[in-house]
Specification:
Organism: Henosepilachna vigintioctopunctata
Strand content: 5-15%
Distance between the termini: 29 Å
Number of domains: 3
Number of strands: 19
Number of helices: 22
Structural class: alpha/beta
Keywords: Signal
Helix content: 25-40%
Largest sheet: 6 strands, mixed
Signal peptide: 1-22
Radius of gyration: 28 Å
Protein name: VWFA domain-containing protein
């Protein structure tokens, strides 16, 4: 075998700190004004989770009018999307921009320090070219930290763990002088290994890729030409941007020996997390910031090595892999479920106390703090905060590393799922179910697809898509048109038209995706009329004749299952399961059935005997592909596997064909060098 060796010359740039021409203002940047002028709301948006974050990052990365790398993207996110500490202005009056908001939270101080003196300079990427205004504002809410302490009036429901009465505020910036018992905190996402502040990932990675090298004294002199003399200790931009920066804020804001660190919180909904409430007003280093900061440090300490392996490494890939069970492909020990081991190795290489002291002096030059600490006071509190953080970090990371999940089995292949709803689940419960399934079945640009049909009139509630954000946008538009009954034939006529259009488009558009097909009917009370039954049988026959691989799952209450038994018995790949109003139970049952469906790798309708399919294989996982029995009876096939490898992995070929229920299956394991061509 001839090996071709490509030599990549990698240039590493080192940046020195420089004073920016224009200091970052607390006024809302022009790009983010639509997020605060009343035209954007978080209502009916997707939950704040890693898959949605990855989706939006991926949309920026694949935008065909730009060429970006990790450094360009992280810097653009830091300068254009993240803007920490935004709160409503006193008296709710609009400023010159027409928005009653500005960055007056303490989180803004660290943000200003980083973007002006560590990751400075203009962004060369305009993220608003690839994202809609709603997507941009949603991403801003995901990545930007702010804590709203105002009393909301919903504390009876949202602060169940606290006293019910609002408390007087000593913070004179609060208009009504009353604080909520559970302040609302933006800038968090939910993961299975603890909620995190994802902005810290961007802070850490952008600092690592910018590679600013300067002493604390140099930076202070750059800020205001002060004659203050500090040790010439090097400022580690990664630590300053993450943990050391947050601890320095805690030292300056709290200024006492009993520092509150690692404050916890809770989500409004564990299935559909959209609002995060903290249990205290001291939010300098919450648990979400701590975990996000640790993750940011871990990724930042490895990103240069990963870029050296593969220059086209994407931010979305890194985040997706890190928060998965499989870990980062370049080093599988680097994953969120192994934080304790990885972070303990990193923290040994730094004098954290020195970084906290230096950062505290920088923050003091950026902004005024209520309590004036002496040099000895800063040194003493920095030492105590470093020790307290290390103990707390060890405890928290061990806690989340110990979590075990039983439902993290990947689907056998990607599937196109069409759900028919008749109103048996209300709008909110339906959103919970839909999002839960998108996670279990890995709905994404490169994964499974999902569409929702109004069972009453057969119209699309949400068109088939791999974009979770688009899915929820369509759901929101149809909230006032929620179904109340079921028409089987209208629903399946819509599916027939969709299958036909998809086939037509695939035939003219080149490469097809090897998706399995699943139709899910949800109902607790539907009893089809004779007329509807007759028309449905015709529609069902049309689907099965043209697309016999389509799997129909009837999720029905026990009271009505007998009315659908004949339909399910007619075709062996259709089944009836029990409907449940408990969303978690229903989602688990549906997910378990759908994830067994293999992908389809034949396309017999294009009038071309030579057709192709394209799919993405993840190292360490298996995918299953099927040629349905009806097709093997009619045709002979030769399957040739072509691998397009974009990194240093070995080629892998399918194992021999196997039979199951008279269907022919093709199995792709991870690294098996055999059978590049199979005849049937």
């Amino acid at each position: 075998m001839k090996l071709q060796i490509f030599i990549c010359i990698i240039l590493l740039f080192s940046f020195t700190v420089r004073r920016t021409c224009c200091s970052t203002s607390s006024h809302i940047p022009k790009l983010l004004v639509p997020c605060y002028n009343g035209s954007f709301t978080m209502e009916n948006k997707p939950p704040l989770t890693i898959p949605v974050l990855v989706e939006l990052l991926r949309k920026i990365e694949v935008y065909d009018k730009t060429t970006i790398n990790l450094r360009i993207l992280t810097k653009a996110l830091l300068h254009e999307v993240i803007f920490d500490g935004v709160l409503q202005s006193d008296g709710s009056t609009s400023n010159s921009q027409g928005v009653p908001f500005r960055a007056r939270g303490h989180e803004f101080h660290k943000y200003k320090l980083i973007v002006d003196y560590f990751v400075s300079g203009d962004s060369t990427l305009s993220v608003n070219e690839s994202l809609t205004t709603n997507e941009l504002c949603f991403l801003h809410n995901m990545l930007s930290v702010a804590v709203d302490e105002r009393y909301r009036g919903d504390e009876e429901e949202t602060c169940s763990y606290k006293g019910k009465k609002p408390i007087p505020s000593s913070n004179l910036n609060l208009e009504n002088k009353i604080r909520s018992q559970c302040p609302l905190m933006r800038g968090n996402v939910n993961t299975r290994r603890g909620s995190i502040s994802p902005g810290h990932l961007v802070y850490g990675l952008s600092a690592a890729l910018q590679n600013t090298q300067a002493s604390f004294s140099t930076i202070i002199h750059s800020i205001n030409k002060t004659k203050l003399r500090l040790d010439t200790k090097k400022a580690d931009s990664i630590w300053v941007s993450t943990i050391a920066g947050d601890l320095a804020e805690a030292v300056l804001n709290q200024a006492n020996n009993n520092l509150k660190l690692g404050i916890t919180g809770s989500w409004n909904d564990s299935i559909l997390p959209t609002l995060y409430y903290v249990v205290d007003f001291i939010t300098d280093l919450t648990e979400t910031k701590m975990l996000g900061g640790i993750d940011g440090l871990v990724l930042a300490n490895n990103v240069i090595a990963w870029e050296n392996i593969l220059m086209t490494t994407r931010l979305s890939q890194i985040i997706d892999m890190y928060y998965s069970n499989r870990g980062v492909s370049y080093n599988s020990t680097i994953r969120a479920s192994n934080r304790n081991n990885v972070f303990n190795a990193i923290i040994k290489s730094i004098n954290l106390t020195e970084q906290i002291i230096g950062t505290a002096y920088l923050l003091k030059e950026i902004s005024a703090y209520d309590t004036l600490l002496s040099a000895e006071g800063i040194k003493d509190l920095a030492s105590k905060s470093a020790e307290q953080f290390q103990n707390l970090a060890d405890e928290i990371t061990k806690h989340y590393d110990s979590f075990e999940y039983v439902d993290e089995i990947s689907p056998r292949s990607n599937v196109e799922i069409i759900m028919i709803l008749d109103g048996s689940l209300d709008f909110y419960s339906s959103k919970q179910l839909i999002y839960s399934l998108t996670e279990k079945l890995q709905v994404s640009t490169y994964g499974s697809k999902l569409g929702i049909i109004n069972g009453e009139n057969g119209r699309w509630i949400a068109h088939v898509t791999g974009q979770i954000f688009d899915l929820f946008s369509d759901l929101g538009k149809n909230q006032n048109y929620w179904p109340t009954q079921l028409s089987l034939h209208l629903s399946f006529e819509t599916i027939i038209a969709h299958y036909q259009n998809t086939t037509r488009n695939n035939c003219t558009g080149g490469q097809n995706k090897p998706l399995g097909r699943a139709i899910v009917l949800l109902s607790s009370s539907a009893r089809p009329t004779d007329s509807d039954t007759y028309k449905y049988k015709e529609a069902l026959s049309s689907i099965k004749n043209a697309f016999p691989e389509a799997n129909i799952i009837y999720a029905l209450s026990e009271q009505i299952q007998q009315h659908f038994q004949d339909f399910a018995n007619t075709y062996h790949n259709d089944t009836i399961m029990s409907f449940s109003r408990d969303v978690s139970t229903l989602s688990s049952s549906l997910g378990e059935m759908i994830r067994q469906i293999p992908g389809q790798i034949v396309s017999i309708f294009c009038g071309n005997s030579n057709t192709g399919m394209e799919d993405y294989l993840t190292p360490g996982t298996e995918k299953f592909y099927e040629i349905y029995e009806e097709y093997t009876r009619r045709y002979k096939f030769n399957i040739k596997v072509i691998y397009c490898i974009s990194s240093s992995i070995r080629k892998s070929y399918p194992k021999p064909m196997s039979k199951y229920n008279d269907n022919t299956y093709l199995r792709f394991p991870s690294f098996i060098d055999r059978h590049p061509s199979v005849d049937l």
